[in-house]
Amino acid sequence: MPSLYLASGSPRRRELLTQIGVPFTVLSAQIDETPFDAETPAAYVERL
């Protein structure tokens, strides 16, 4: 089975993949996802 890249720091997702035996590598980004004041949802998504 090919290895999967998990682009998330979620402990639950790691746990689920481990439980079903899927090999993976965690590549979570260290990005502050806090929205800016008065930022529109569209601008927020585009920035991230």
TrEMBL record:
- Does the UniProt entry include the keyword Zinc? no
**Is Transcription tagged as a keyword?**
no
Give the keywords, sorted.
Answer: Hydrolase, Nucleotide metabolism
Give the GO biological process terms.
nucleotide metabolic process
Q: Name one Pfam family in it.
A: Maf
Task: Show the GO MF annotations.
Answer: nucleoside triphosphate diphosphatase activity
Instruction: Tell me where the signal peptide lies.
Output: none
Q: Which superkingdom, per the lineage?
A: Bacteria
- Can you say what this protein is called? Maf-like protein
Tell me what organism the protein belongs to.
Pseudomonas syringae pv. actinidiae ICMP 19096
Tell me the classification of the organism that encodes this protein: Bacteria, Pseudomonadati, Pseudomonadota, Gammaproteobacteria, Pseudomonadales
